[in-house]
């Protein structure tokens, strides 16, 4: 699965329409700005601000998420993006007003049934309409998840990757292109039949190393495992912007299915939307399904996760790791109650390796607009 190409809006209501027109080309799901994609206005800049490969600070921690820090002395519009930027008071106030408006104008009961009863229909329509222009090469994968480089080495031995929510092959094909391991197998699965057809007809589709199939990650019974894979057969499972497309009622089943497939000691690589991301704040009336869960204009669904909520879903462990922002006070007890589809820490099949909050301030320098983004990225290890 993948998300639609959503226009981004500014926190100021007065500038909303102008912003949508100016930045409608940005794709929300892959808005990961790696160093080479951002440019500077001067050749003589500090290493942590430079994106010249000969003059920039090298990342050693994949969860560092960039090193361009915004200080009080900086001109926020000097660069296209800043890392680790908390939202300002104006945006927080705007966001709270938006959430209230969303709750007061939810999706109708008729539409809620229509969108939830057959989600595959909407993803098929999405890929039918976006086949030609929505493939994005996720070149950042190997930097963010070094294990993908390791298992692609010539001497890595027999390894199996399962990509869940493969879409048009945005993850599978870049891995395949860089692979040097003759014994690597990539199983790329998606909920959408149309998406799978797109992958199978791609010139890069190589059945020696890759198999694309239709599979519902939250399937039950005979449908709980994808074709060609058995229990404990997967070394690395990849879920990039797919878990958010599931209904909260499907989370536990999906985690159980992944756990059944991944070998003990195997890894789940995860990236998805964080709570308070601009994509959430921008939703208008008639899109609210339930708290933090929305319907996009194309009929596909999206959820925005809290960091601790996500950790509990996968590991059963609920604790406040970072100080909650104003308006988002979540206690351990409340979090445990909210995540009712989860399990206890002893019962959970995964343990947490890393979980990072990737916060970016994206800047439109021409229009003097600021756009706050938030993603969650983590790794879980199978017990």
UniProtKB/TrEMBL annotation:
Family matches, as SUPFAM superfamilies: S-adenosyl-L-methionine-dependent methyltransferases
Region labeled Disordered — which residues? 38-61
Q: Which UniProt keywords apply?
A: Methyltransferase, Transferase
Signal peptide from the UniProt entry: none
Q: What is its EC number?
A: 2.1.1.-
* Top-level EC class: transferase
Query: Is the Methyltransferase keyword given for this protein?
Result: yes
Q: Where is the Methyltransferase type domain?
A: 162-267
Q: Which Pfam families match?
A: Methyltransf_12 (PF08242)
Q: Which CDD domains match?
A: AdoMet_MTases
Q: Which InterPro entries match?
A: Methyltransf_12, METTL2/6/8-like, SAM-dependent_MTases_sf
What segments bear the compositional bias annotation Basic and acidic residues? 45-61
Family the entry assigns: Belongs to the methyltransferase superfamily. METL family.
Q: What does this protein do?
A: S-adenosyl-L-methionine-dependent methyltransferase.
What protein name is recorded for this chain?
tRNA N(3)-methylcytidine methyltransferase
Q: Which organism is it from?
A: Sporothrix epigloea
């Amino acid at each position: 699965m993948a998300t639609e190409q959503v226009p981004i809006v500014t926190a100021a209501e007065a500038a909303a329409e102008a912003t949508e027109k100016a930045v409608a080309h940005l794709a929300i799901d892959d808005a990961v700005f790696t160093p080479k994609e951002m440019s500077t206005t001067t050749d003589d800049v500090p290493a942590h601000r430079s994106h010249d490969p000969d003059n920039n600070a090298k990342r050693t921690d994949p969860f560092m998420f960039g090193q361009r820090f915004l200080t009080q002395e900086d001109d926020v519009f000097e660069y296209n993006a800043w890392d680790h930027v908390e939202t300002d008071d104006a945006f927080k106030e705007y966001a709270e007003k938006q959430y209230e408006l969303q709750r007061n104008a939810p999706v109708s009961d008729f539409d809620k049934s229509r969108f939830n009863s057959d989600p595959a229909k909407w993803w098929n329509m999405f890929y039918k309409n976006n086949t030609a222009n929505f493939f994005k090469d996720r070149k950042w994968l190997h930097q963010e998840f070094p294990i993908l480089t390791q298992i692609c080495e010539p001497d890595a031995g027999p390894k199996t990757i399962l990509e869940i929510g493969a879409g048009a092959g945005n993850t599978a094909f870049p891995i395949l292109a860089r692979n040097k391991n003759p014994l690597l197998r990539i199983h790329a699965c998606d909920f959408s039949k149309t998406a799978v057809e797109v992958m199978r007809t791609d010139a890069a589709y190589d059945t020696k190393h890759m198999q694309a199939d239709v599979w519902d990650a939250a399937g039950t019974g005979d449908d709980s495992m994808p074709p060609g894979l058995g229990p404990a057969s997967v070394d690395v499972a990849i879920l990039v912007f797919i878990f958010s497309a599931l209904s909260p009622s499907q989370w536990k089943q999906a985690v159980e299915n992944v756990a059944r497939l991944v070998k003990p000691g195997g890894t789940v690589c995860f990236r998805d939307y964080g709570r308070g991301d601009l994509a959430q704040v921008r939703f208008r009336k008639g899109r609210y399904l339930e708290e933090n869960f929305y319907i996009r204009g194309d009929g596909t669904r999206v959820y925005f996760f809290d960091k601790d909520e996500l950790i509990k879903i996968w590991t059963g462990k609920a604790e406040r790791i970072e100080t909650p922002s104003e308006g988002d006070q979540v206690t351990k007890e409340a979090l445990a109650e909210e995540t009712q589809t989860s399990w206890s820490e002893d019962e959970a099949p995964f343990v947490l390796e890393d979980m990072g909050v990737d916060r970016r301030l994206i800047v439109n320098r021409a229009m003097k607009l600021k756009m706050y983004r938030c993603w969650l990225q983590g790794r879980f290890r199978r017990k």
